[in-house]
Specification:
This protein starts with about 20 loop residues before the first strand and ends with a helix. A hairpin with an 8-residue loop joins β1 and β2. Helix content is about 30%, strand content about 15%. The chain has one domain. It is built from one helix and three strands; from the N terminus they run βββα. It is globular. The protein is an alpha+beta fold. A three-stranded antiparallel β-sheet has the order 2-1-3, with helices on one face.
């Protein structure tokens, strides 16, 4: 049996047996973009975007903050 290790894409922590992780994907269903969070371990994005593994609330907040910061920097670039 091959067991694939799952690592948090924010902090690098390895997933244990009882951890409650999230799947995160940039939303492709909204025209203005966004992040889609899911607790479903079998969550699929339809192959359109990469799915990230997030270990918990703290890393989910960090990922959301990074996404919001990227929106801010894109808006500033467009204004120049």
């Amino acid at each position: 049996m091959i067991v694939q290790a799952v690592k948090c894409d924010v902090c690098g922590k390895l997933k244990g047996e009882t951890n409650h992780w999230l799947k995160v994907s940039p939303s492709v269903s909204r025209l203005d973009g966004g992040l889609m969070f899911s607790k479903d371990p079998d969550f699929q994005s339809g192959g359109l975007t990469q799915i990230e593994d997030i270990c918990g609330q703290e890393c989910a907040h960090k990922r959301l903050s990074a996404w919001l910061e990227s929106l801010n920097s894109n808006t500033e670039r467009q204004a120049k």
